Amino acid sequence: MSRPIAILDTNVIILLLDTTNTRAANERRTLCELTIERLEKQGARYIVPAPVVAELCRTGRGSDTIRSVVRTMISTLRIEVLDEDAADIAGEISRTRLQNRAGRERGAVKYDALIAGVAQRIGARWLVTADADDMRACLAVINSNIEVVVADQQAASGQLALVSVLRPGG
Question: Of 1, 4, 66, 71, which is the most exposed, with the fewest CB atoms less than 10 Å away?
Answer without folding.
Answer: 1
